[in-house]
């Protein structure tokens, strides 16, 4: 799916701004009730989560539908053009109405969807746009929510059983089975864009390297009649290659490769022309390959220095905030990092564009987090998620396939791969094959494994890259880094035998900024540094460990819980991006680790 870009053939008009908004009272269930909205509407900013835009508990605790509306007039000069309404992300389920008519439903809160307006409205029309948004999570959504009677209630302590106490609830509560606040709403931009009736529908670019030359195998999907031509422009804007036809192979002589910063992340532009339409798609000449226990970019062994992140900021919640994204790119450079994982959902497209330009490598993750239900329920047999999971992977690859920064797909974060090992292996290996089948560039595929009994886990070892989240010294062996390092080595001996590239995709310690101790103990800044110093010393001794991603880049908001003091505090930075001692530690450490050949 192409990102809306304006040029001399296409227009893009933003519908971002102040909309009217109200939470459902539990009676309308996603249907539009004009009187209800008229009597209850307040102002809301789009794009942004709605949860933190008001200082009222109901905005944080809401479970169910909410309604957005605004009017819009389509400029008359767009007459004769194809008109499309595009939502970059509405979390988690959207119903779109135009002048009271339901025109689209979409499940999934982190990928774009579009409404073709032909036959609905025309240039010059003024129309009422309404969006009903459902924030509920369950055993059939990604991310996964617990449901009454499952694991959430399984944690009863002595006293009044929580099921009894919960009877006070007037409406259903969201029970996220994941450790981030369930921010919801129109979280990313809304646009109306136009193209000629006969238009370019998609562009597929598959780069490779042949000696000094770059190769681009391309395919252009079109609607309507006409010829396709494609010019390859250098970063300086010069035409360096040309081809005609919907598919073909282009050779770029003496090509400049895309490499992670501080090497040169060189970008070319594929300028596709079809009939009266034109679209410019940027791309990079780079290759990605797993070779034994090495992860190769452009044939060189790459070492991942970076983190898991979140799209999370004050007031915006999970809403798109370009200033934060630009600042985070600056901080990634300041930290001498070279990569991040889009934990635990696809991020806004603008971030991948920035990563392409800045030379930052991305592990691109789906919203499949929380697939597990304790010890007694096989989620693969009981959760209704497989079909939606395939939809999400298909849409993720369709959106992100041309980004040179994307080097691997993560199908999920911390699914249960231990308690029902054969069921898990069957689910993940079949979805792994499905994911590979969809990617024109056939990048490595993985899922991120939760701390578990890795000898019982039959799925993680089947992935192209072993990605593990481990918390020796924090969640277990708490505070005891001697025991933690011993445990690490017992487990690393196991993975040595599997002999695949291994990335530690999460390890970390909650740390209260400003809390200092002469003797490092948990929650102090000194402990966070010691935790990483001791762990990294063990990881450095294993050449198959090809990456270290501390959890997390920054502190972030979560649901309330006894383990959460104002959210998750494992950040190297505070939520408003101030460095803890561990940020300075990694800046020094990663300043001495090259992108390539670290353990050769
Ligand atoms: C944590 C992280 C959480 O924030 C992330 O979204 C997924 C969790 C650690 C699980 N991984 O809690 O800080 C570790 C379980 C160990 C038993």
What keywords describe this structure?
6-stranded antiparallel beta sheet, single chain, TIM Barrel, Jelly Rolls, binds ligand E8X, about 600 residues, Immunoglobulin-like, 8-stranded parallel barrel, alpha/beta
Mind explaining what this structure looks like?
The chain is of the alpha/beta class and 600 residues long. The strands form six sheets. It has an eight-stranded parallel barrel. The protein starts with 10 loop residues before the first strand and ends in a 9-residue tail after the last helix. It folds into three domains: 11-143 and 178-194, Jelly Rolls, CATH 2.60.120.260; 198-286, Sandwich (Immunoglobulin-like), CATH 2.60.40.10; 303-591, TIM Barrel (Alpha-Beta Barrel), CATH 3.20.20.80. The protein is globular and about 70 Å long. Helix 4 (322-334) runs parallel beside helix 5 (349-358), helix 7 runs parallel beside helix 8 (421-438) and helix 9 (481-498) packs parallel to helix 10. Helix 8 links the parallel strand 24 (406-413) and strand 25. It has eleven helices and 28 strands. The chain binds ligand E8X. Ligand E8X is lined by residues 179, 344, 414, 450-451, 469, 471, 475, 506, 551, 568, 570.
Ends apart, CA distance between termini: 39 Å
Which CATH architecture of the largest domain would you pick?
Answer: Alpha-Beta Barrel
Which class of the largest domain in CATH terms? Answer: Alpha Beta
| Strand line-up of the largest beta sheet | 21-22-23-24-25-26-27-28
The beta-strand count equals 28
Mean pLDDT: 96
CATH superfamily of the largest domain: Glycosidases
Domains, number: 3
Q: What is the overall shape?
A: globular
Summed up, the helix count is 11
Percent of residues in β-strands: 25-35%
The bound ligands are: ligand E8X
Helix content: 10-25%
Q: Poorly predicted ranges (pLDDT <50, ≥5 residues)?
A: 150-154
CATH fold assignment of the largest domain: TIM Barrel
Largest β-sheet summary: 8 strands, parallel, barrel
Structural class, by secondary structure, is alpha/beta
